[in-house]
From TrEMBL:
UniProt-recorded name of the protein: ABC transporter ATP-binding protein
Presence of keyword Transmembrane: no
Organism lineage string: Bacteria, Pseudomonadati, Acidobacteriota, Thermoanaerobaculia, Thermoanaerobaculales
Sequence ranges assigned to domain ABC transporter in this UniProt record: 6-231
Keywords: ATP-binding, Nodulation, Nucleotide-binding, Transport
Residues in the signal sequence: none
Pfam families per UniProt: ABC_tran
GO molecular function: ATP binding; ATP hydrolysis activity
Keyword Transport recorded: yes
InterPro entries the record matches: AAA+_ATPase, ABC_transporter-like_ATP-bd, ABC_transporter_ATP-binding, P-loop_NTPase
Residue stretches spanning the membrane: none
Amino acid sequence: MSEPAIQVQHLSLSFGKKQVLNDVSFSVNAGSFAVLAGPNGAGKTTLLRCLMGFYRPAQGTIELLGRPRKCLPGREVAFGAEACDFPSDWSLRQLARFRSLVGEVSPEAEKEFERLLEQVKLSPSLKVSQLSRGQRSLAQLAWVLASRPTLLLLDEPTLGLDVVARDLALDLLLGFLAEQPATVLLATQDLDLAERLADTVILLHQGRCHWTGTLEAIKTRYQVVTVPRGFAPPEHEAPLVRRDVLEGEQWVVPVTTDHWKRWLEDRGISGRTPTLGEVAFALWHEPKEDTCAS
């Protein structure tokens, strides 16, 4: 097994009296594509900013690429924020040239930025003020990738993009990963996108970690079954989620214990593997104790 590229242990952070992160622990192996998923307010952006050193946690430790965060050279880790902070009166070429001159990026990264802009059909001569929101997001992603980092931390890179721009962004990201091995931690609310890209999943809800592990492992812990309306579950048990459907009721049930397995088998009820969205909804619908595992 590869060494962790990200190792977070017992991370907690509060803003005033509001606890935003509560004893969060997880690891991401080098070379993984990990998705940090959660609804609005779950703590995704705050967690990424802690990893970047923008916030100082009240407790806990962070190691990136095998070293404490403060000991890591800046160019090995790149952060793509949801909001683009480029100066509005500069062209994209001017922006790249300035950051190269001040040593923030290498001259090679400046050239790579222009190459990546061409891939997403953006001219380097465009001023930031001329870009739509979607185009700014594409330029931001191209900028993050241009330095060819070892570790990518991305905050909602496809949020608000139309279908065409989203496909351009994903092609850009996946093309980069095909050329250069890297570890990705991508924060998103889009669980369909997460299921498409991720091999590792971290589920956050209300600042707590509900799951960390492989995508396959979390999906095999549950089954989606359809039963007649009014069907009684096992004694002292309840489905995580019950929904009305045309055929009756649809339940999401845990199958990690023999109790549920036997109950389903005895009644001849077969289920299917849930989507990541169905699992996440079940865990977030009625938050229970943490199920973080690795």
